[in-house]
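Forum > Structural Biology > Help requests

Title: Can anyone predict the 3D structure of 7-carboxy-7-deazaguanine synthase?

Hi all, first post here. I have the sequence for 7-carboxy-7-deazaguanine synthase but no way to get a structure on my laptop. I'd be grateful if someone could post the structure tokens.
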Amino acid sequence: MSYAVKEMFLTLQGEGRQAGRRAVFLRFAGCNLWTGREQDRADAVCRFCDTDFVGMDGTDGGRYPDAAALAARAAALWGDDRAMAYIVCTGGEPLLQLDRALIDALQNEGFAVAVETNGTIAAPAGLDWICVSPKAGSDVLQRSGNELKLVWPQPGSDFEAMEGWDFEHFLIQPMDDERGAANVQAAIDFAMQRPLWRLSLQTHKALGLR
Ligand SMILES: C[S@@+](CC[C@H](N)C(=O)[O-])C[C@H]1O[C@@H](n2cnc3c(N)ncnc32)[C@H](O)[C@@H]1O
Ligand SMILES: Nc1nc2[nH]cc(C(=O)O)c2c(=O)[nH]1
Ligand code: SF4
Ligand SMILES: [Mg+2]
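Reply #1:
Sure, ran it for you. Structure tokens for 7-carboxy-7-deazaguanine synthase below:
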């Protein structure tokens, strides 16, 4: 199978329980909850997305013909010492494309393979780290994983039901939009009221990292 990739780059994971970890980011093109076009945002299921995932025009973007070719380029971005090699598959919605063949190829290059998903598509077997970020108004099929990261505030999110899902970590992350500091305060209030949940900040934005 071929893969449509928006961009790939080396940075630090900015969010969640792996924040601060050196990581290759593999951003797939396309999402099932928004076209990515601004004129469609108001009618989308997911309306707060902070990411351009349209097309294949970013750094190291393009259509990769097979899993081995994509994994080889990711490995070149990481460098030669693969002892702690870590790749975050994101998007867009990575589970539209990430399959067992690509997970195997990435692991053969020495990567631990993480995914950032909206949870509407069940994850393939073999992943090393699963982050599910539910979107209000969508049906979450993937109810297990390593971390559940809820962007807040999101009216209509059933966070009490989520607390019964099978995750190691529950994170509450302020929505980055024009309300800015009010959303940060809302997330702080949430974490203060519900000790199961920890605050997750998008540290890469504050630090000027990609
Ligand atoms: C761009 S999404 C791509 C992966 C997948 N489609 C998903 O939604 O999880 C990566 C992460 O950024 C989060 N995110 C997107 N827009 C955001 C925003 N405006 N503020 C805070 N987090 C946001 C998502 O919830 C998700 O956890
Ligand atoms: N540094 C950095 N950390 C991130 N964590 C999740 C991201 C994403 O867009 O999925 C992201 C991103 O785009 N950059
Ligand atoms: S599901 Fe993820 S990639 Fe898709 S629009 Fe929402 S935040 Fe963006
Ligand atoms: Mg991002």
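The helical segments are 67-78, 100-108, 159-162, 181-193, 203-207. Residues 181-193 form the longest helix (13 residues).
Shout if anything looks off.
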